[in-house]
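[[Encoded backbone]]
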Amino acid sequence: MKKIHIIGLGLLGGSFALALKKALPDCDITGFDNRQKHLDMALEMGLIARQQEVPDRDTDVVILATPVDTLFDLLEKTLEQVGANTLVMDFGSTKEQLCRQMAAHPKRNQYLAVHPIAGTENSGPGAAVGNLFDGKVLIICEMEKTNIHLKGLAYDIFEAVNMKLRFMDPGDHDLHLAFVSHLSHVSSFVLGKTVLDKTSDEKNIFDMAGSGFASTVRLAKSSPAMWAPIFLENKKNVLAAMDSYIQHLSHFRDMIAEGDVDGLNQEMQEANKIRDILDIKE
């Protein structure tokens, strides 16, 4: 593997560049970002060797790490630019619509749909960290539709940066992510907005906010440019998750209003079971 090109040099693209530089020091890593500030910072930080809007035709792998609403057009454009031996993969958080759009593409076998379950609430190349992907899960969708030789290139990269591979149907991926990722971001954004609306004096918020509030609202610092498209691309599943959440929230409110201490205790004990699941995962 001699050439890797990354389009989108924010948190994910920048962190992957750092991981690749360490794992594959002899590989030529180029990149591009349509925000000049991000591009300049990526060059200054040494995330990429040089900026390059169009990947070379003999590039081994092109990685697309841009907002999900840009990916289909970018995928089509990139596949036209590269040669027959180049793999193109995206890091998008939604997969069903993109895989459906790509189903009949003449170069479908040069595309691999992946989603690294890694990230922070921060954004931009300045947030990039070299160990972001180390030991993290990478979901691969419709693996069987990608050329076997090109899949081999992808596996080499994922092994080099120490990722754990999981295989999922695109529809199942989007459904599950709506509940375990997208809903938590919605909740965090809404909680942050609720508190800001209620308390106009920001000093009071920070004086009284404990670690519980900080950890719950942490995701509200995430990039709106990235997350608004995710919510809309996965609208059906996100709405279903929100409906279920609102139903549970309303039930919880009713128990408080009615002074139902036994009901509250039982509800919270049920929720405590998540601790065992998360402890096993960790």
Residues 3-168 form a domain with the Rossmann fold fold (CATH 3.40.50.720). The beta strands are 3-7, 28-32, 50-51, 61-64, 87-90, 111-116, 137-141, 164-168. The chain is about 55% helix and 15% strand.
